[in-house]
Amino acid sequence: MNRKPIIAGNWKMNLSISDGVALASTIRDRCSRYRDVDVVLSPQAMMIWPIVKRLEGSPIQVAAQNCHWAEKGAFTGELAPAQIKDAGCAYTIIGHSERRQLFGETDAAVGKKARTLHDQGVIPIICIGETLEQREAAQTINVVSQQLVTAISDLNDDEVATSVIAYEPVWAIGTGRTATPAQAQEVHRNIREIIVRHHGDAIAQRVRIQYGGSVKPNNVRDLMSEHDIDGALVGGASLTADSFVQIVAHREDID
Predict the structure, then answer these.
(1) Quick check: is 193 in a domain?
(2) What does the alpha-carbon distance between residue 97 and residue 170 come to, in Å, rounded to a whole number?
(3) Are 198 and 244 spatial neighbours (Cβ–Cβ below 8 Å)?
(4) Which of 152, 153, 131 shows the shortest CA–CA distance to 142?
């Protein structure tokens, strides 16, 4: 099955609002012609609305970086999926390793967020990945299996199929280290096999699985050439237009 690649830029807690809007404008102008790839920008929450407005009429979509699982309530500082939808986001990143490690986000919490996002018609980008210690202990597949199965346990087949899975080995995020294409493909293949076991091959073949972890213009082609790698969740390289556009345009040479 031909799965449409999805390239998402996770800006994390970077850029001013004006700089973020300017960067989104440049990416819109330079990336809108690439209709064979879904392009998603994930700015800090204060920037979501102005960037959504700036991207109107373009194919580029916006993702929130996190959410709460509740529909509303006394959760100071949190974003509800309904509010994220109302702001114009098509996607939301959940389960990022920084949320897990720095803020104690659990597998069960990720599952509840995935459920509520789908209830609101927002596609979750579900991040999973192992630490260096877990990889060296040969626990990679066990770890990502536990994270994935819990995250999708309350979703039906169509919801699983439309979710995006982002495999991000923790040891490769922001470190400059990148899994080799073969290492990434091995885990991506296992992720798809896990989905096959729980939801069948037809659903598994529809799921897009991104790779994240120091993705740059000089390694994206090799990563994306692997059969089960359907896109990239890009961190630092998404903060400049030149590098992000090169990643989006990985199938062709550009100036």
Answers:
(1) yes
(2) 6
(3) no
(4) 131
* Averaged pLDDT for residues 174-188: 87
Asked if 97 contacts 63 with a C-beta cutoff of 8 angstroms, the reply is no
Query: In 43-163, which ranges are E strands?
Result: 61-64, 91-94, 123-128
234 and 211 in contact (C-beta within 8 Å)? no
Is 210 contained in some domain? Answer: yes
Question: For residue 47, what are the domain limits?
Answer: 6-248
| Residue from 33, 39, 41, 37 nearest 4 by CA | 37
Look at the block and give the residue holding tokens 């960037």: 51
What number of CA atoms fall less than 13 Å from residue 93's CA on the CB side?
A: 33
Q: Is residue 139 part of a domain?
A: yes
176: exposed, middle or buried (C-beta count within 10 Å: 0-12, 13-18, 19+)? exposed
> Which residues are known to be catalytic?
96, 168
What is residue 43's three-state secondary structure? coil
Which one, of 162, 160, 170, 253, lies nearest residue 214 by Cα? 170
This prediction has a pTM of 0.96
CATH number at residue 111: 3.20.20.70
How many domains does one find in the chain? 1
**Which two structure tokens, joined as six digits, stand for 200?**
């069948």
| 255 within domain boundaries | no
In this predicted model, what pLDDT tens digit does every residue of 23-60 receive, in sequence order? 999 999 999 899 999 999 999 999 999 999 999 999 99
**Would you tell me how many other CB atoms lie within 10 Å of the CB of residue 204?**
21
Chain-centre distance for alpha carbon 211? 8
